[in-house]
Amino acid sequence: MNTAQIQTALKTKGYDPGEIDGIRGRRTIAAIKAFQAANGLLVDGIVGPETLAKLFPAGAPAAKSPVIPVAHGWMGEAVRLIGVTEDISDADNPLIIGWARDLDIDYNDDGIPWCGLFVAHCIGSQLTEEPLPNYPLSARAWRSFGTECSPQLSAVMVFWRGSPSGALGHVGFYVGEDRDAYHILGGNQSNAVTVTRLAKGRLLESRWPATALEPEGIIRKLRPDGRFSENEQ
After folding, report:
1. Distance in angstroms (rounded) separating the CA atoms of residues 153 and 150
2. Which has the closest alpha carbon to 141: 163, 120, 124?
3. Domain holding 18: CATH number?
């Protein structure tokens, strides 16, 4: 199951998600909520099993690439943004600055660490009722986000940087793991949105959005390709 299939089903039933582009944007979320309200479902914008059953009464079609569960909309947004880079000149990437503007966060220079902003955008744009940390630009502030969970697919992973007892940190999303490292999809990793390996010993917290469906505990075992990241913020 993927977002484009959901958008098509919504449009067929009279709920306009906008362009059928496979992106879970605001119009798609609004269409999901309208469909849920009309069908006596919990209006949360999350396409869980009950919403899927109503949306596809004859059975949901199989996804071509079921890598990210459809209920993990924040992770889908993170994957979509892989490759986004900050502007290393005196200018700024307007996309990154726009994430802060949409969330009413005081941020106007992508030379300032933006790993927390990236996570805030992915969560805030997809889980519109989810409380964000008071200062989401701080990686360690995400230690109080949502609820504690074990490291698993789509979890918010908070790491120390510099010193375990210091103030610096890094935050991103779990993609998988090998024996020694977590593979993290995050922003400001070598000045871009990438997947990189962070040593397991640096993990401080693993957190799950409070308004999402219960975590499934999906663990992805990956090959230990690549060196440990030493350039993330």
Report:
1. 10
2. 120
3. 1.10.101.10
Query: Tens of pLDDT along 194-212?
Result: 999 999 999 999 999 999 9
Which regions of the chain does DSSP assign to beta strands (E)? Answer: 147-148, 156-160, 169-177, 181-186, 194-199, 203-208
In a domain, 62, yes or no: no
Domain hosting 48: range is 3-55
Q: Contact 213/75 with Cβ under 8 angstroms?
A: no
Residues whose CB falls within 8 Å of the CB of residue 14, separated by 6 or more in sequence, listed in order: none
CA distances (Å), 54 to each of 44, 49, 74, in order?
A: 15, 9, 22
- Total tally of structural domains belonging to the chain: 2
Predicted TM-score (pTM) of this structure:
0.80
What token pair was written down for 176? 């998988």
Q: Which residues have C-beta within 8 Å of that of residue 203, sequence separation ≥ 6?
A: 151, 157, 158, 159, 182
CATH of the domain at 143: 3.90.1720
Q: What is the C-alpha to C-alpha distance for residues 101 and 108, in angstroms, rounded to an integer?
A: 9
Q: Tell me: do 43 and 87 sit in the same domain.
A: no
